[in-house]
Amino acid sequence: VQQLSEILMELFQRARLEKPGQVDPRAAEFTLSLLAAMYDRSGTGYIKTRSAAAALIALSGDTLLAKYRAFFQFYSVPDGKVAMITRSSLRSLLTDLNQIPAIVGESCTLSCVEIATHSCFHEVLNSAIVEEKFLSWLRSEPAVLLWLPTCYRLSATEMVSHQARCR
Q: For the EF-hand domain, which residue ranges apply (predicted)?
């Protein structure tokens, strides 16, 4: 948690320099508090790096495709010259991401994670899948992660401006 706090402070300091007046001075503190509530409920002082990274990626303002690629990068395992994501690492990713809606009381059960994992590996004979299969599955908007593209669409429309007038 201490290392994560330092990283977040540096991250938000850079963001404040790039976008003066647009980043709350307590952003690092708030973000750390959110991450601790999601991934360190018992107060051990330890949060898995991969879990924190998944949450920060999911909550970032990047495109869905960039987020999906980053998820693959953090959760994949090398298999020769190719990186692949296993059933186990997919379960970890989905469990970590499920903590985000859970913080506001909207989590799904462990069976949702298993159903989603099964759907991703449907008709797959290998123990792991390549990035394209993973991305294709995510683009199909599995129910367990439906909140992610929905939040992305909502945030993307916040900046839309139309020149139409209503009466």
A: 65-154
Kindly state the tokens that stand for 124. Answer: 């797959």
The 3-state DSSP class for residue 74 equals helix
Where would I find the beta strands (DSSP E) of 9-156?
Answer: 77-79, 82-86, 128-129
pLDDT band of 155, cuts 50, 70, 90:
confident
Nearest-angstrom CA–CA distance, 31 and 59: 10
Taking alpha carbons only, the member of 136, 143, 68, 141 closest to residue 101 is 143
- Residue 133 burial class via C-beta count within 10 angstroms: exposed 0-12, middle 13-18, buried 19 and up: middle
pLDDT above 90: residue 126: no
* pLDDT value of position 48: 94
As to burial, measured by CB atoms within 10 angstroms (0-12 exposed, 13-18 middle, 19+ buried), residue 41 is exposed
Task: Name the helix (H) or strand (E) containing 147.
Answer: helix 147-157
Q: In what helix (H) or strand (E) does residue 13 lie, and over which residues does it extend?
A: helix 2-18
Q: Chain centroid to CA 114: how far?
A: 18
Three-state DSSP class for 87?
helix
